Amino acid sequence: MIDFDTVELSNLNRQQFKLSQVDMPKVVALKQNLQEFNPFIEIKIHQVKVTHDNVKELFADADIITEAFDNPAAKAMLLDAASEFYPDKPIVMGTGMAGIHSSNTIVTKHPRENLYIAGDGESMGAEGLMAPRVMIAAGHEANMITRLILGDTEI
């Protein structure tokens, strides 16, 4: 897991953190939470901001690259860099999940080989990020990742 940020109070409505984890590095808090579910898994964490210059190093050992950024420019940068350095690795991303729009518009698309995008692909969410849509898109991403691990590349 890679993230430079710390848990903020404003994250609690849509991210799986606890009030006691506010101000904790997100990667430390998420590792802690995941290991409460399964203490037998190995989780490597990097508290660093993902940039074009470090994508090659950070994702070298990844079988699947998964994105959960809330910044459109960061999403585009990761897609460009991952496609450049790792054109054969699957990339699972989310986009268009903000706002109070219908949750029924969130789907997983396969726009090109090795790229899977969960969301509605268009909602800008002037109202802000809303937990239900974010969690549904995250569920789509998790489902696609599980399918890829099992060797199913179709949506």
Automatic annotation (TrEMBL):
| Top-level taxon of the source organism | Bacteria
The entry's keywords: Nucleotidyltransferase, Transferase
| Organism field | Lentilactobacillus parakefiri
Q: Does the keyword Transferase apply?
A: yes
Q: Which residues form the THIF-type NAD/FAD binding fold domain?
A: 1-153
Q: Indicate whether Transferase appears among the record's keywords.
A: yes
Q: Which NCBIfam families match?
A: PRK08644.1, thiF_fam2
Q: Which SUPFAM superfamilies match?
A: Activating enzymes of the ubiquitin-like proteins (SSF69572)
Q: What is this protein called?
A: Molybdopterin/thiamine biosynthesis adenylyltransferase
